[in-house]
Amino acid sequence: MAEEVSCLKARLMEKEKEIVALKNKLATLEKSTTDLQLQKNVITLPPLKPKAVLSNEDIMRYSRQLLLPELGVHGQLNLSQTSVLVVGCGGLGCPLAQYLAAAGIGRLGLLDFDQVELSNLHRQVLHGEESQGQAKVQSAADAVRRLNSTVECIPYHLLLSPENATQLIQQYPLSP
Predict the structure, then answer these.
(1) 124 in Cβ contact with 94 (< 8 Å)
(2) CA–CA gap between residue 130 and residue 135 (Å, rounded)
(3) What are the pLDDT digits (tens) for 47-71?
(4) CA 163/CA 76 separation, integer angstroms
């Protein structure tokens, strides 16, 4: 009988720990939901402002890729006028967004409706442990902004659907 009571007490303590963890996750989720500046609807974006020359900071930041004959100053200026929409901030979307931001893309749209979970962290490189329970687009947008503050990053916390796809995708033309 004593062994059974001990076993039940242990299970009860485990369940209490689970409840505390779930309460913390809920609090984080509620906080991130109220703090988010996410686009829940598709808005019309203004065109990117043309950049005539690279600043000294741009030259320092992008110096290695400016040396590439295929890119150079003209290519870097074109890149700063380019908009890309990344659909999904998971295993493929994270490194794509990271490299586009690092390269100096002008505008980066991030679209995802999911939230960061512990099981995402080993392959979704823009998210960290502190992002658990947060919308993936917010976590990814924060990471992109830390990486390159000159990139205009627009997080869309919504599902891509037939109703919003055309309007959303038109905001990100294939060429500048």
Answers:
(1) yes
(2) 12
(3) 888 888 999 999 999 999 999 999 9
(4) 35
Nearest in space to 35 (alpha carbons), one of 120, 118, 131, 164? 131
Among 74, 73, 83, smallest CA distance to 46 is for: 83
- What is the Cα–Cα distance from 124 to 87, expressed in whole angstroms? 14
pTM above 0.70, yes or no: yes
- pLDDT in the model for residue 126: 95
Rounded CA Rg of the chain: 21
Q: Is 160 left (phi over 0), alpha (psi -120 to 50) or beta?
A: beta
Scored b (16 or more CB within 10 A) or e, 67-94 reads eeeebeeeebbebbbbbbbbbbbbeebb
Q: Report the distance separating Cα 122 and Cα 116, nearest Å.
A: 11
Q: How far is CA 5 from CA 1, 26, 58, in A?
A: 6, 31, 67
Instruction: Please write the tens of the pLDDT for every residue from 69-78.
Output: 999 999 999 9
DSSP state for residue 112 in the 8-state scheme: -
The pLDDT, as a whole number, for residue 175 is 64
Give per-residue pLDDT as tens, 139-153. 999 999 999 999 999
